[in-house]
Protein backbone atom coordinates (compact mmCIF):
# COMPACT_ATOMS: atom_id res chain seq x y z
CA UNK A 1 0.00 0.00 0.00
CA UNK A 2 1.36 3.42 -0.94
CA UNK A 3 1.90 6.09 1.71
CA UNK A 4 0.82 9.67 1.18
CA UNK A 5 3.78 12.00 0.76
CA UNK A 6 2.10 14.17 3.40
CA UNK A 7 3.00 11.52 5.99
CA UNK A 8 6.65 11.04 4.98
CA UNK A 9 9.84 12.67 6.24
CA UNK A 10 12.23 14.64 4.03
CA UNK A 11 14.62 11.70 4.05
CA UNK A 12 11.90 9.30 2.94
CA UNK A 13 10.94 11.66 0.12
CA UNK A 14 14.49 11.62 -1.27
CA UNK A 15 16.06 14.57 0.51
CA UNK A 16 15.39 18.30 0.48
CA UNK A 17 16.14 18.62 -3.26
CA UNK A 18 13.66 15.90 -4.26
CA UNK A 19 10.65 16.99 -6.26
CA UNK A 20 8.48 15.23 -3.67
CA UNK A 21 9.89 17.36 -0.85
CA UNK A 22 9.36 20.50 -2.90
CA UNK A 23 5.77 19.47 -3.58
CA UNK A 24 5.14 18.74 0.09
CA UNK A 25 6.53 22.14 1.06
CA UNK A 26 4.26 23.99 -1.39
CA UNK A 27 1.23 22.02 -0.22
CA UNK A 28 1.93 22.97 3.41
CA UNK A 29 2.18 26.63 2.40
CA UNK A 30 -1.06 26.40 0.42
CA UNK A 31 -2.86 24.95 3.44
CA UNK A 32 -1.59 27.86 5.55
CA UNK A 33 -2.82 30.41 3.00
CA UNK A 34 -6.23 28.76 2.65
CA UNK A 35 -6.67 28.87 6.42
CA UNK A 36 -5.67 32.52 6.36
CA UNK A 37 -8.18 33.18 3.58
CA UNK A 38 -11.03 31.76 5.63
CA UNK A 39 -12.78 34.66 7.32
CA UNK A 40 -10.45 37.33 5.93
CA UNK A 41 -11.98 40.74 5.22
CA UNK A 42 -12.18 42.06 1.65
CA UNK A 43 -8.82 43.87 1.48
CA UNK A 44 -6.93 41.13 3.32
CA UNK A 45 -8.68 38.53 1.15
CA UNK A 46 -7.30 40.16 -1.98
CA UNK A 47 -3.78 40.06 -0.59
CA UNK A 48 -4.06 36.40 0.38
CA UNK A 49 -5.56 35.45 -2.99
CA UNK A 50 -2.65 37.13 -4.78
CA UNK A 51 -0.21 35.04 -2.71
CA UNK A 52 -2.23 31.91 -3.46
CA UNK A 53 -2.12 32.62 -7.20
CA UNK A 54 1.65 33.17 -7.10
CA UNK A 55 2.04 29.81 -5.37
CA UNK A 56 -0.56 27.69 -7.16
CA UNK A 57 -0.16 28.60 -10.83
CA UNK A 58 3.65 28.24 -11.09
CA UNK A 59 3.39 25.01 -9.06
CA UNK A 60 0.79 23.56 -11.44
CA UNK A 61 2.64 24.75 -14.53
CA UNK A 62 5.82 22.97 -13.39
CA UNK A 63 3.85 19.80 -12.72
CA UNK A 64 2.23 19.85 -16.14
CA UNK A 65 5.53 20.56 -17.90
CA UNK A 66 7.91 18.31 -15.92
CA UNK A 67 6.16 15.70 -13.79
CA UNK A 68 3.07 14.58 -15.64
CA UNK A 69 4.88 13.79 -18.93
CA UNK A 70 7.16 11.49 -16.91
CA UNK A 71 4.17 9.82 -15.28
CA UNK A 72 2.56 9.21 -18.66
CA UNK A 73 5.75 7.48 -19.78
CA UNK A 74 6.36 5.26 -16.75
CA UNK A 75 2.85 4.35 -15.57
CA UNK A 76 0.43 2.23 -17.62
CA UNK A 77 -2.46 4.35 -16.32
CA UNK A 78 -0.45 7.57 -16.30
CA UNK A 79 -2.65 9.25 -18.89
CA UNK A 80 -5.83 8.75 -16.83
CA UNK A 81 -4.16 9.76 -13.56
CA UNK A 82 -2.63 12.96 -14.87
CA UNK A 83 -5.72 13.90 -16.87
CA UNK A 84 -7.79 13.93 -13.68
CA UNK A 85 -5.39 16.41 -12.07
CA UNK A 86 -5.18 18.48 -15.26
CA UNK A 87 -8.98 18.75 -15.19
CA UNK A 88 -8.75 20.02 -11.62
CA UNK A 89 -6.12 22.54 -12.69
CA UNK A 90 -8.37 23.67 -15.53
CA UNK A 91 -11.26 24.20 -13.12
CA UNK A 92 -9.01 26.27 -10.86
CA UNK A 93 -8.11 28.45 -13.87
CA UNK A 94 -11.79 28.84 -14.77
CA UNK A 95 -12.80 29.69 -11.19
CA UNK A 96 -10.08 32.28 -10.71
CA UNK A 97 -10.94 33.87 -14.06
CA UNK A 98 -14.57 34.08 -12.95
CA UNK A 99 -13.57 35.40 -9.50
CA UNK A 100 -11.62 38.26 -11.06
CA UNK A 101 -14.79 39.51 -12.79
CA UNK A 102 -16.86 39.62 -9.58
CA UNK A 103 -17.01 42.61 -7.24
CA UNK A 104 -16.40 42.07 -3.53
CA UNK A 105 -20.13 42.43 -2.78
CA UNK A 106 -21.34 40.22 -5.64
CA UNK A 107 -23.61 37.47 -4.23
CA UNK A 108 -21.97 34.87 -6.49
CA UNK A 109 -18.49 35.54 -5.17
CA UNK A 110 -18.79 33.48 -1.99
CA UNK A 111 -19.87 30.34 -3.88
CA UNK A 112 -17.09 30.69 -6.47
CA UNK A 113 -14.50 31.22 -3.76
CA UNK A 114 -15.77 28.22 -1.77
CA UNK A 115 -15.55 25.99 -4.84
CA UNK A 116 -12.03 27.26 -5.56
CA UNK A 117 -10.89 26.27 -2.06
CA UNK A 118 -12.59 22.88 -2.43
CA UNK A 119 -10.90 22.09 -5.76
CA UNK A 120 -7.50 23.19 -4.49
CA UNK A 121 -7.81 20.83 -1.53
CA UNK A 122 -9.01 17.99 -3.77
CA UNK A 123 -6.02 18.56 -6.05
CA UNK A 124 -3.58 18.35 -3.13
CA UNK A 125 -5.14 15.10 -1.89
CA UNK A 126 -5.04 13.50 -5.34
CA UNK A 127 -1.38 14.41 -5.77
CA UNK A 128 -0.19 13.48 -2.27
CA UNK A 129 -2.21 10.28 -1.90
CA UNK A 130 -2.19 8.89 -5.45
CA UNK A 131 0.02 10.41 -8.14
CA UNK A 132 3.21 11.26 -6.28
CA UNK A 133 3.43 8.00 -4.28
CA UNK A 134 3.05 6.09 -7.56
CA UNK A 135 5.93 8.08 -9.01
CA UNK A 136 7.98 7.47 -5.86
CA UNK A 137 7.60 3.71 -6.28
CA UNK A 138 9.26 3.79 -9.72
CA UNK A 139 11.96 6.44 -9.40
CA UNK A 140 15.00 6.45 -7.15
CA UNK A 141 16.22 9.39 -5.05
CA UNK A 142 18.70 10.57 -7.70
CA UNK A 143 15.99 10.78 -10.37
CA UNK A 144 13.64 12.52 -7.93
CA UNK A 145 16.31 15.11 -7.19
CA UNK A 146 16.88 15.66 -10.92
CA UNK A 147 13.17 16.19 -11.43
CA UNK A 148 13.18 18.50 -8.42
CA UNK A 149 15.76 20.74 -10.09
CA UNK A 150 13.84 20.86 -13.37
CA UNK A 151 10.57 21.47 -11.53
CA UNK A 152 12.08 24.33 -9.50
CA UNK A 153 13.52 26.04 -12.59
CA UNK A 154 10.14 25.90 -14.32
CA UNK A 155 8.28 27.01 -11.20
CA UNK A 156 10.44 30.11 -10.81
CA UNK A 157 9.85 31.22 -14.41
CA UNK A 158 6.20 30.21 -14.85
CA UNK A 159 3.04 32.32 -15.24
CA UNK A 160 1.44 33.39 -11.96
CA UNK A 161 -2.15 33.98 -13.10
CA UNK A 162 -5.07 32.01 -14.46
CA UNK A 163 -4.88 31.18 -18.18
CA UNK A 164 -7.77 28.81 -18.89
CA UNK A 165 -7.25 28.83 -22.66
CA UNK A 166 -3.63 27.64 -22.61
CA UNK A 167 -3.05 23.90 -22.98
CA UNK A 168 -2.45 21.93 -19.81
CA UNK A 169 0.18 19.90 -21.70
CA UNK A 170 3.31 20.53 -23.76
CA UNK A 171 4.09 21.99 -26.15
CA UNK A 172 1.35 24.62 -25.80
CA UNK A 173 1.93 25.42 -22.14
CA UNK A 174 5.71 25.60 -22.63
CA UNK A 175 5.35 27.98 -25.59
CA UNK A 176 3.05 30.20 -23.51
CA UNK A 177 5.39 30.34 -20.51
CA UNK A 178 7.72 33.21 -21.39
CA UNK A 179 5.31 35.91 -22.61
CA UNK A 180 2.65 35.13 -20.02
CA UNK A 181 5.14 34.92 -17.16
CA UNK A 182 6.49 38.40 -17.94
CA UNK A 183 3.01 39.93 -18.16
CA UNK A 184 1.74 38.13 -15.06
CA UNK A 185 4.66 39.18 -12.90
CA UNK A 186 4.33 42.81 -13.96
CA UNK A 187 0.66 42.58 -13.10
CA UNK A 188 1.52 41.09 -9.70
CA UNK A 189 3.67 44.14 -8.91
CA UNK A 190 0.88 46.54 -9.87
CA UNK A 191 -1.80 44.66 -7.92
CA UNK A 192 0.39 44.28 -4.83
CA UNK A 193 1.02 48.05 -4.81
CA UNK A 194 -2.74 48.76 -4.99
CA UNK A 195 -3.51 46.29 -2.19
CA UNK A 196 -0.89 47.85 0.10
CA UNK A 197 -2.94 51.08 0.18
CA UNK A 198 -5.24 53.26 -1.94
CA UNK A 199 -2.68 55.91 -2.84
CA UNK A 200 -3.16 58.52 -5.55
CA UNK A 201 -1.51 56.23 -8.06
CA UNK A 202 -3.96 53.38 -7.42
CA UNK A 203 -6.29 54.16 -10.37
CA UNK A 204 -3.34 54.20 -12.76
CA UNK A 205 -1.99 50.93 -11.36
CA UNK A 206 -5.42 49.31 -11.67
CA UNK A 207 -5.57 50.39 -15.30
CA UNK A 208 -2.08 49.01 -15.90
CA UNK A 209 -3.05 45.68 -14.34
CA UNK A 210 -6.25 45.51 -16.39
CA UNK A 211 -4.33 46.26 -19.58
CA UNK A 212 -1.69 43.64 -18.83
CA UNK A 213 -4.41 41.08 -18.09
CA UNK A 214 -6.19 41.85 -21.35
CA UNK A 215 -2.95 41.52 -23.31
CA UNK A 216 -2.16 38.19 -21.62
CA UNK A 217 -5.60 36.83 -22.50
CA UNK A 218 -5.16 37.87 -26.14
CA UNK A 219 -1.80 36.09 -26.27
CA UNK A 220 -3.16 32.92 -24.66
CA UNK A 221 -5.83 32.83 -27.34
CA UNK A 222 -3.27 32.21 -30.07
CA UNK A 223 -3.81 28.72 -31.57
CA UNK A 224 -0.21 27.65 -30.88
CA UNK A 225 -0.85 28.01 -27.12
CA UNK A 226 -3.41 25.19 -27.27
CA UNK A 227 -1.18 22.58 -28.93
CA UNK A 228 -1.18 19.29 -27.02
CA UNK A 229 -4.44 20.06 -25.23
CA UNK A 230 -6.69 17.19 -24.22
CA UNK A 231 -10.27 18.02 -25.33
CA UNK A 232 -11.57 17.59 -21.77
CA UNK A 233 -9.44 20.49 -20.49
CA UNK A 234 -10.06 22.84 -23.40
CA UNK A 235 -12.10 25.99 -22.84
CA UNK A 236 -15.38 26.18 -24.74
CA UNK A 237 -15.38 28.65 -27.58
CA UNK A 238 -11.66 28.37 -28.40
Describe the 3D structure:
By secondary structure, the chain is mainly α. 69% of the residues lie in helices and 0% in strands. Helix 2 runs antiparallel to helix 3, helix 2 packs across helix 5 and helix 2 (42-74) packs antiparallel against helix 6 (172-196). It is globular.
If you average the pLDDT, what whole number results? Answer: 93
User: Structural class per helix/strand content?
Assistant: mainly alpha
Radius of gyration: 18 Å
How would you describe the shape?
globular
N- to C-terminal distance:
42 Å
Roughly what percent helix? Answer: 55-70%
Largest sheet: none
Number of strands: 0
SS summary, helix count = 7
Low-confidence stretches: none
- SSE order, one letter for each helix or strand: HHHHHHH
Amino acid sequence: MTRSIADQTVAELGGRLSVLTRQQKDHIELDRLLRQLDGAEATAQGQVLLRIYRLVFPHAFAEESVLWPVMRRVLPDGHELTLQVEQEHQEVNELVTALETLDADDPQREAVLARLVEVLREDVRDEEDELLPRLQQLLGPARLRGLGLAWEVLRRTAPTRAHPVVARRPPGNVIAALPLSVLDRLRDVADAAVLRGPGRGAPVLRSVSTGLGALAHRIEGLPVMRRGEDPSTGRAGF
